[in-house]
Amino acid sequence: MADFSGKHGLVIGVANKRSIAWAIAQIASNRGARLAITYQGRFEEHVNELSQGLDPAPLILPCDVTSDTDIEAVFSRIDRDFGGLDFVVHGAAFAPREELTAPFSQTSREGFRMALDISAYSLIALTRGALPLMEKRGGGSILTLSYLGSERVFPNYNVMGVAKAALEATVRYLAADVGPKNIRVNAVSAGPIKTLAAAGISGFSSILNVYKERAPLRRNVDASEVAEAAAFLLSDAGRGITGEVMMVDAGFHATGM
Ligand SMILES: NC(=O)c1ccc[n+]([C@@H]2O[C@H](COP(=O)([O-])OP(=O)(O)OC[C@H]3O[C@@H](n4cnc5c(N)ncnc54)[C@H](O)[C@@H]3O)[C@@H](O)[C@H]2O)c1
Predict the structure, then answer these.
(1) Neighbours of 55 (CB within 10 A)
(2) Is 157 tagged catalytic?
């Protein structure tokens, strides 16, 4: 079992109790980590409420990942309070709703820019901010969340698929860049799970049904299963793994039809 005793971690992407990042935060905290959890503006109350259930109490900080000022403030506060950082969970993603309903050829320049900025570039900005804090600990582990829509076409996933392709390439380039500092960068590619972000994809429930019918395990995965794999990659148990996209999707990715 992944152990987080004495570790300090940053978790980005908690919106509510269904968030995959929240499932990861709970596992890491229950297994010994002290956490900083960030929220995006409107989710402040939810994140504060949820965090009351964690012991030790996490540091709760605002962070919009499109803001370099917010990102800088998060890392300087973590440096002050924790004196270093062992892991980062990146669970932020966004595309404007109209980009997830209109035909893909109608993707707007601004929608494309936003999706790629929030869902892929942010991993670079956060890794850059985490670097000096992880170097103080002699290394670290960074984990992001992706989806098979990076490689295959799913109805209405559209520009998010392009953003996930960029995110997975970013994982590999970052892994090569920061690996000599003993910092690892990986992704878990999760099967579909009903969350707030998923609710923005029209026809999402039919994707859930197809997975249930065709995945080798004949079911969908839940957030706790994704979180277990994430915890493995984040902890020392995954110390030999970097630049990896690990599929946690009941085996769906392996099927041909
Ligand atoms: N739910 C699924 O089916 C599924 C499958 C595979 C991968 N994922 C990925 O998992 C990750 C987490 O999503 P989730 O399904 O838990 O949904 P979620 O809605 O709970 O989480 C998405 C998070 O992104 C954050 N976010 C969006 N824009 C932001 C910004 N500008 N600054 C800071 N944070 C911002 C939101 O606040 C929210 O916390 C996403 O990367 C998503 O693409 C989800």
Answers:
(1) 8
(2) yes
Taking a C-beta distance cutoff of 8 angstroms, is the pair 33, 84 a contact?
Answer: no
- pLDDT tens, 174-204? 999 999 999 999 999 999 999 999 998 989 9
CA distance 66 to 50: 24
pLDDT tens-digit map of 74-100: 999 999 999 999 999 999 999 999 999
Is 173 assigned a catalytic role?
no
Q: How far is the CA of 91 from the centre of ligand 1 (A)?
A: 5
Residue 242 Cβ inside 6 Å of ligand 1? The answer reads: no
**Cβ–ligand 1 contact at 147 (below 6 Å):** yes
Question: Which of 94, 189, 208, 247 to mutate to test ligand 1, by most ligand atoms within 8 A of the CB atom?
Answer: 94
The tokens of 141 are what? 């582990």
pTM: 0.98
